[in-house]
Amino acid sequence: MARYWDVDYEYIGYDKSWDDMQQMLEDGEIDMVTSPRKTPEREEKFDFSRPIGTNNGILTVRSDNSTIVDGNYSTYNGMRVALLNGSSRDKELADFAGNKGFTYDPFYFDTTEEMEEALQSGNVDAIAATSMRKTNNERIVDKFDSSDFYVIVKKGNTELLNEINYAIDQMNAVEGDWKTTLYNKNYESIETKNLEYTEKEKSIISQYSKDNPLHVLCDPTRYPYSYNENGEMKGIIPDYFRKIADYAGISYEFLTPVTRDEYIAYQKNKETTEMSIDARMETDNYAETNKWGITAPFITMQMARVTRRDFDGKINVVATVDQTVANSIEDAMAPGAEKLMCSTRQEMMEAVRKGKADAAFVYYYMAQAFVNSDTTGTMTYTLLEQPTFTYRMGNLQVAP
Fold first, then answer.
1. What is the full DSSP assignment across 121-134?
2. DSSP assignment, residue 324?
3. Which pTM value belongs to this model?
4. pLDDT digits (tens, 9 = 90+) for 132-188
5. Percent helix, strand, coil in the chain (nearest 5)?
6. β-pairing verdict for 379-395 and 275-280
7. Per DSSP, what are the bridge partners of residue 394?
8. In terms of C-beta density within 10 A (0-12 exposed, 13-18 middle, 19 or more buried), how is residue 20 classed?
9. How much is the CA Rg of the chain, to the nearest whole Å?
10. Cβ atoms 351, 345 nearer than 8 A
């Protein structure tokens, strides 16, 4: 917020208990506190900003606890639960336990550090707290009561509250989904993701290990979306897949074609290639006919037209590459134009620069990267609103 609101600040009271911080705010020792949720008791004492995020209660146990089974509420009975003094999670956990039909014994602590120490030492069986807490050696067994949270100021401090709300409004306008970004940066961990798999899904994941990784393919000629750099696949699409695979715990290995012809050969070799992560299909029929298993679309790409600056608007010759699955973009964008076949999209744009073709149609970031790196100053690109293309990941070895 300080980037949008000209203010000097310092952190005070963060080493105190939650009760102490609220009392310090009430007494005027500090000016604002984040990130409480609304309760009738707090609304009597404090004024609340616009929402700055959403969180929920989480019930965690130690990672090696096999006695308490996620969602099996009979195994929750009698567990010792750590709670934070002054937190509204106390009542919510009681309501949750009543709805689910289990009993527990509450133990109260002043700080989250004390709760975590009690859990790891075995003095309690679980922690009930906010999802805005970095977990360590814990797994989530349940979530409950999602709600917004806020910045609070002392009742009647309208001037400060207006400044805070102004900063939040500016962030909402220009920072995108900053709430999720900050949450992921500060709180997300492998343990808190709490992925749940069916037995069949677990069996599939267990098939792939360091000794038997999933073999993954993508086009090496789509810089900066995907490209081969010194034998390593890099770019937006490979990085996206790495995050998903690491998230799911799947071992994988990228195939490393250097040319588009090698990429196409790999794609046709179902014994070598198990997954293509850049499948572009106008319909699902192709996948069904070829017995591919495909994901939902994970990225949408806009097109750009690359031309010389002296382009007169007429496309007599259009540069293209061999299409593997999808219909030719050039057929739609330059019907009737002579096609100049190229090996790569980089070569397509080079052909335009050298005057061998009038235009090339490539994805937006490819056009941007090429034109920005061109030192001759003769090239330009135009972003096209349509068409757009969605990409999926496809398993090439789905059995009939």
1. HTS-SEEEEESSS-
2. S
3. 0.49
4. 887 878 888 888 888 889 999 999 999 999 999 999 999 988 887 888 888 777 776
5. 30, 30, 40
6. antiparallel
7. 276, 294
8. middle
9. 28
10. no
